[in-house]
Design brief:
alpha/beta; D-Maltodextrin-Binding Protein, domain 2; 2 domains; 5-stranded mixed sheet; globular; disordered N terminus
Length: about 325
């Protein structure tokens, strides 16, 4: 028995450094919410562990949409979740960040209005006010959408109302807001029992693109390439499980985030409006989409130059193709 025990000790000693290297820190784009379900599925079902990974899912230190990217750029996180638009803007400023995979495959944003205000088409925004949160992205996006209906700046008013957009819509301070179809639209319909009109950005002039992507700095993509490959393999399997067993996936998400149990029904509605958009993740290798989005942002002067280093597909699972 003694030789066997000695062998086990030697084996544990040999693999100990590998355990330390298997840790990955992932910074979410916001507080845990149904957009993140596959990540919690991967953690709770042991899919990360089966790839030899210990994944820490962390909330950003400041609720600024650019904060996760800053943490990844500074090396304080291995991966961060952000939007392709945010990544393109940051990359154009010379920050060496790259998308390595995706989480949600289609945009969630658009313009939200109340049907009772008489808005049925984008043309009805003439003479109206629109509330938004994020500078400079939102004014550019909403102006581009309204152009498709023949409206130009001056035909409507854009107002920065901060992050409390929904109350300004419900109290009539604005006629519409920039919103997400899987959150604010549902909140208005469920909690306020009001009919809504939602104009999806990708249906009105904004190039199709993923909503959320995983980004890393160039040092991490080089030094931890094998760990990132394992991470994305686990995400692929977690997405498949989420699509096949949505009830189980959502239950695992609530188990990992017990504070959300208080509004489980509402969070389930958010999840139901999102789950189909996980299909295809983490594959983000539709490079024509990235090219069109970057060209759009250049034309709209959100960026001053383009870059060909936005995306790496080298870390994706084979199922994604090339």
């Amino acid at each position: 028995m003694r030789p066997c025990a000695l062998c086990m000790l030697l084996l544990l000693w040999a693999i100990a450094p590998g355990v330390a290297q298997s840790q990955l820190i992932v910074v979410l784009d916001w507080l845990p919410n149904p957009n993140h379900v596959p990540l919690y599925v991967a953690r709770e079902t042991g899919l990360f562990a089966s790839e030899g990974l210990v994944v820490s899912l962390q909330v950003p230190t400041a609720f600024d949409p650019s904060d996760p990217a800053k943490l990844a750029a500074a090396g304080r996180a291995d991966l961060a979740i952000t939007t392709p638009i945010n990544l393109i803007v940051i990359r154009a400023q010379g920050v060496p960040l790259t998308a390595v995979g995706s989480l949600i495959q289609k945009p969630l944003g658009g313009l939200l209005a109340l049907k009772e205000r008489g808005i049925r088409t984008l043309a009805d925004f003439k003479g109206r006010t629109i509330g938004y949160s994020l500078e400079p992205e939102e004014p550019v996006l909403w102006a581009a959408m309204l152009e498709t209906a023949g409206l130009k700046p001056g035909d409507y008013q854009l107002i920065n109302v901060g992050f409390d957009t929904l109350p300004t819509l419900l109290t009539g301070q604005v006629d519409a807001i920039g919103a997400f179809r899987n959150v604010e639209k549902i909140l208005v319909e469920v909690q306020e029992r009001k009919e809504t009109v939602f104009f999806a950005m990708e249906e009105h002039g904004i190039p199709e693109h993923p909503q959320l992507v995983f980004i890393a700095n160039e040092t991490v993509t080089w030094q931890k390439s094998e760990l990132l490959r394992r991470f994305l393999r686990a995400v692929l399997r977690a997405v498949a499980l989420t699509l096949q067993e949505p009830d189980r996936a959502f239950a695992l998400f609530l188990k990992a985030n017990p504070d959300l149990q208080r509004e489980a029904d509402l969070n389930r509605r958010f999840f139901d409006a999102t789950v189909a958009l996980f299909a295809g993740a983490p594959c983000h290798n539709q490079l024509d989409q990235w090219a069109k989005l970057q060209s759009f942002l250049l034309e709209r002067k959100l960026i001053a130059r383009t870059t060909d280093q936005l995306v790496t597909t080298n870390l994706l699972p084979p199922e994604c193709g090339r």
